[in-house]
Design goal:
The chain is of the alpha/beta class. 37% of the residues lie in helices and 13% in strands. It has 6 helices and 5 strands, in the order αααααββββαβ. The chain has helices spanning 20-34, 44-56, 65-87, 91-108, 116-122, 200-212; strands spanning 127-133, 144-150, 163-168, 186-191, 228-231. The longest helix has 23 residues, at 65-87. The model is unreliable at 178-202 and 233-239 (pLDDT under 50).
């Protein structure tokens, strides 16, 4: 058997590692233009402005909070614009601006959550694990389903948040695949039973029917009576 190793390439310094300007111009900007990961919901003009600011301030260490602060300063401007659009009853415009803000917030915590500020940029509201009975378990499923819940601060029993239910597999849990959880939505992330990984259609059948039996959490802070269902797994061969 042939063993593949990186060898000397492990120590190679690529051209885009030279500086923030090099990272943007050589590696990230071409991806952003095409809206490739991690810029799936990004506007390249927004990032041009951010990287111009980073270069002007000679910030070349993404692990430092100085990097994060520049991104967050731009993000907050978009959040303000989005809030103004929302107040003006322009939901489509507000949604687009919120996504632009979320894209900046996502890159602000790159490359890892190495500081408290980056962790705050990762999730402002805490994510909690809610466990509920898998009432429609079948074919060897376990008795429980785990949901990862992010609640907006304004969610209460008197005014529960609407629900975006995101059914995900092993590689679909990343926060960049959940832009719709911004603003006033929460995101419930449902783990698919392992044997159902090969069939999102079956995962929907057994997993979602159990979710339907759960109307809310114990505090009544979100409503599952009329959820939006979203999955990145369903492929045409399963339909």
């Amino acid at each position: 058997m042939v063993t593949w190793t990186l060898g000397d390439k492990m120590k190679k310094v690529h051209a885009h590692h030279a500086s923030t300007r090099a990272l943007w111009e050589l590696e990230w900007r071409p991806r952003c233009v095409k809206r490739f990961y991690p810029f799936n919901y990004s506007d390249v003009a927004d990032f041009d402005d951010v990287f111009d600011e980073l270069v002007k301030k000679n910030i070349n260490n993404a692990y430092d909070d100085a990097w994060t602060k520049v991104f967050l300063s731009f993000m907050k401007r978009f959040e303000q614009r989005a809030a103004e659009a929302e107040a003006a009853h322009e939901p489509e415009n507000a949604s687009k601006i919120y996504l632009r803000a979320a894209s900046l917030g996502q890159i602000s915590r790159f490359p890892i959550l190495s500081t408290p500020l980056k962790r705050e940029a990762f999730w402002k509201e805490p994510v909690t694990n809610v466990i509920f009975p898998h009432t429609h378990a079948a074919n060897g499923d376990g008795p429980e389903i785990h949901m990862f819940v992010r609640l907006p601060q304004q969610a209460t029993e008197a005014s529960p948040a609407p629900c975006l239910l995101y059914l995900t597999g092993l590689d679909g849990y990343r926060t960049d695949t959940m832009p719709g959880a911004a603003a006033r939505l929460i995101c419930l992330q449902v783990q698919i039973p392992p044997h159902l990984e090969i069939s999102p259609a079956l995962a929907y059948k057994f997993g979602y029917t159990s979710v339907e039996d759960m109307e809310t959490d114990a505090q009544g802070r979100f409503s599952l009576l009329d959820p939006v269902f979203w999955t990145s797994l369903v492929h045409e061969r399963y339909l």
